[in-house]
Design brief:
301 residues; five-stranded mixed β-sheet; single chain; alpha/beta
Length: 301
């Protein structure tokens, strides 16, 4: 048995929650994955996965083995990178975790230029609004908008910033008093992020003036585009990133309200951060991706 191949198949089966899904991601037959994982269990004398007709789950022994297997595969990948990823050219696979809508709207339309610029670079783009474990998820780099949860095991690099706009559709605003001060938001149906279990509030700043507004509304979501679509449909007032609604405002589909104020949901910042593990310092792959991000963030619009 090829032990390294068996580890890869086992890890992918756990991540994919099934043999068939793992086989599709690995580009091999399902029977090959099943056979290799079964052989691994026989060699270890332990059941790593529970099987039934509907799904695959990890046993207690499997969870312990999975953690070690991920660490082993990552260590081998990093060992290879010390040779191949420190030259003048970016090469190899780069796994990047980016927020869903930021990835779709800002990164994806421009990703071709990064690939053209670095022909030996392979990109695996993971769209997720969750704060992931870079090591556990095998991600080389993560992009996070706003405040990042930092620790000594992660390098955080601020590469830019954005603004959040209070927006609503002309249809929603028709017949309502003109919104000129944040405190008037208590009279409106606000579309809010479900990023916390507490009641949402929006913070505003204008010079020395600081205002907190406890907003209320009938719709909450953890996805920015859901809130954008609701705002476009006239369902209320939303606080959304300029890169998400700038085009809608330009077309007159949404109106930018309270433009004299800096606004954030809760105490979040407006920073665009890149996170990576300390052992990726000097990585040409990571450096190329950061250079690409700085470039597109600095472009008008």
């Amino acid at each position: 048995m090829d032990k390294m191949l068996a580890l890869k198949m086992f890890v992918e089966t756990v991540r994919s929650a099934g043999f068939s899904a793992a086989a599709r991601r690995l580009g091999i037959a399902t029977s090959s994955v099943t056979r290799m994982v079964t052989a691994l269990e026989s060699e270890l004398g332990a059941v790593l996965l529970n099987r039934n007709t509907r799904n695959v789950s990890v046993t207690e022994a499997g969870e312990r083995y999975y953690a070690h297997a991920v660490a082993i595969l990552k260590a081998i990948e990093e060992a290879d990178a010390t040779i191949t990823d420190r030259g003048s050219e970016a090469r190899g696979r780069l796994s990047a975790s980016v927020p869903v809508e930021f990835g779709r709207r800002v990164i994806a339309p421009r990703l071709g230029r990064l690939l053209d610029r670095h022909p030996a670079l392979e990109i695996s783009l993971i769209l997720s609004d969750e704060i992931i474990d870079l090591l556990g998820e095998r991600a080389d780099v993560a992009v996070r908008l706003g405040t990042s949860m930092l620790n000594d095991d992660v390098v955080s690099l601020r590469i830019g910033e954005f603004r959040r706009w209070v927006v609503a559709s002309p249809e929603y605003l028709a017949g309502r008093d003109r919104l000129v001060h944040p405190e008037q938001l208590v009279e409106h149906d606000c579309l809010t992020f479900a990023y916390t279990t507490t009641e949402p509030h929006w913070s505003f700043r204008k010079g020395d003036e600081r205002i907190r507004v406890d907003v209320r509304g009938r719709l909450r979501s953890n996805n920015a585009d859901i809130l954008r679509e609701a705002a476009l449909a006239g369902r209320g007032v939303a606080l959304l990133s300029d890169w998400l609604v700038g085009e809608d405002v330009g077309k007159g589909l949404l109106r930018h309200l309270l433009a004299d104020y800096e606004a954030t949901p809760g105490n979040l910042s407006s920073a665009i951060n890149v996170l990576y593990l300390p052992n990726h310092r000097g990585s040409r792959r990571v450096g190329a991706f950061i250079e690409f991000l700085r470039e597109i963030i600095g472009e008008p619009g």
